[in-house]
Structure formats: C-alpha cells, structure tokens
Amino acid sequence: MDAVFKALADPCRRRLLDSLRRRNGQTLGELCAPMEMTRQSVTQHLDLLLGANLVSTRWRGRERLHYLNAVPLQQICERWIRRFERRRLAALHALRQRLEGGGGDAGSGAAGGDR
Question: What is the pLDDT of residues 57-77, one digit of tens each?
Fold first, then answer.
C-alpha cells in the first residue's frame, strides 16, 4: 500500500490518473499531449503507477494502451476512509434519534422535556 500512497503523492501522476479516469485506454502519446513534460518523464511516472498497480496496460498491435485500475484506490477507501465514515454516520444517526425524541430515555433531554 506504500507504493500507492507514493504514487498518489505526485501531482503529475494524479493528472495522469485523472486523464485515464476521463478516458481509459490511452496511448503514451495521448497521455503526453496535455502534459508539459517529455515522453521519457511521462513514461517514468507511468512506470511508477504500473508498479503501484494503479495502471495496467494492454497491447493493441504496436500501441500500448493504458488503463486505470481502481482496485488499490478502493482498498484505501475501505481501509482508511469507510472505517471513519461508519463512525460518523452512526454518531449522526444517534444525534438524530435524540433530537427527534426517539432514543428511549435520551428523549427526555433537549427535544422532549422543554416543550
């Protein structure tokens, strides 16, 4: 997972991933066109993205097509984001229950007893 975070740390690599998110299956030339860097630099960034398993390739004749692989991003989401999201959603649900008076003995608090 360290390789994924390292790959995502660079803004140029994030731009390449965004480009693939918008249109998957691009050649090196297509990926280089909007970037203000040499093909060699883009190739080095793509190699790092390949090493982190964020990009996969497939040959079509003499062209190498690049595809976004979202699986490592999904794994990060599950491990680092969703865990905190569940806790936050549970807290919001509990707060709503208390405010609406549906939380059992918690209903006699701010929403229930001052009417």
Answer: 999 999 999 999 999 999 988
Rg (CA), the chain: 23
- Taking a C-beta distance cutoff of 8 angstroms, is the pair 19, 34 a contact? yes
Closest to 47 in 3D by CA, of 58, 38, 37, 57:
57
- Concatenate the DSSP letters of all residues of 40-109 into one string: HHHHHHHHHHHHTTSEEEEEETTEEEEEE--HHHHHHIIIIIHHHHHHHHHHHHHHHHHHHT-SGGGGGS
Q: Is the per-residue pLDDT at 105 higher than 60? A: no
Q: Which two tokens stand for residue 101?
A: 């008076």
pLDDT of residue 103: 55
What's the CA gap between 90 and 93, in Å, rounded? 5
